[in-house]
Write a structure and sequence with these properties.
The protein is mainly alpha-helical and 254 residues long. It is built from 11 helices and no strands. It has a single domain, classed as Alpha/alpha barrel (Glycosyltransferase), CATH 1.50.10.20.
């Protein structure tokens, strides 16, 4: 877990990516993006602070929802609007899009929850979910499927998915896209989310936490691996993953 000093350094790293014109970016020389702003706000929230500039709120409020490329973007914008208390009028452009992939259904359900609505799927979307039953693609796809099925209350073989994800843990403690593949921090995040939703945990919890911490750079940010440059996105994956491990450890002690 992060110490108080490490959390402060990580917070400073995230805030160093906030642009003067508002929003957060990958690097000091790149423009702000909705993605990096979302990851930054979520991370700062988990660190117990929300010290963002007024220009960032302005940047978010000016994003036109009807020009976004998909449901993932729509969900992220809606989350930011709600979390930062930006005028509901800015949400007026958010509209439902076609849900043709597992990822689209996943973000549709999350968006509906943010709006305080019960998730509803069409007959064709339910049929699509049936085609995914038993399919094992990558840990991120499996995680989305698991969360969808749980939120919709649809029965599925939880033990099979939990066992497959546990087998995706590599020798270094991290997780690959699927069993016997190289570990990346984003895969760790999706694997832990899925295992937690399934009431399970990694086979080697301490090694998993060690892998996450090895991805941490001296400036407090986290990279995809120990040898890659840190970014706001992977810092979010790291903080989220450490929080999940903490909850897993607490449930084991109860």
């Amino acid at each position: 877990m992060l110490t108080s000093k490490e959390k402060l350094l990580t917070k400073r790293f995230i805030l160093s990516r906030e642009r003067e014109e508002g929003g957060f970016s990958f690097a000091a020389t790149t423009p702000p993006t909705l993605e990096d702003t979302y990851y930054a706000v979520r991370s700062l929230d988990m660190l117990g602070t929300m010290e963002i500039c007024a220009s960032t709120s302005s940047y978010i409020s000016q994003i036109e929802a009807d020009r976004l490329s998909g449901l993932r973007q729509t969900y992220r914008l809606l989350y930011l609007l709600r979390r930062l208390g930006i005028s509901p009028k800015a949400e007026s452009g958010i509209r439902p899009l076609n849900k043709q992939r597992l990822q689209d259904i996943y973000y549709h359900i999350l968006t509906q929850e943010l709006l305080g609505k019960k998730p509803q799927l069409s007959e064709s979307e339910f049929k699509f979910l049936q085609t995914q039953n038993g399919r094992l693609g990558t840990v991120s796809e499996v995680c989305k499927y698991v969360i969808i099925m749980r939120k919709l209350g649809i029965p599925f073989d939880k033990s099979r998915y939990a066992e497959w994800i546990r087998k995706s843990q590599w020798y270094d403690g991290g997780f690959g896209f699927y069993p016997e593949t190289t570990s990346f921090l984003d895969n760790v995040y999706w694997a832990l989310r899925a295992l937690h939703a399934l009431g399970s945990k990694p086979s080697r919890m301490e090694e998993c936490e060690r892998f996450i911490m090895q991805c941490r750079a001296k400036n407090g940010g986290f990279g995809r691996q120990s040898t890659t440059i840190p970014s706001v996105e992977y810092t979010y994956y790291a903080i989220s993953s450490l929080n999940i491990i903490k909850r897993m450890n607490q449930s084991m002690q109860e």
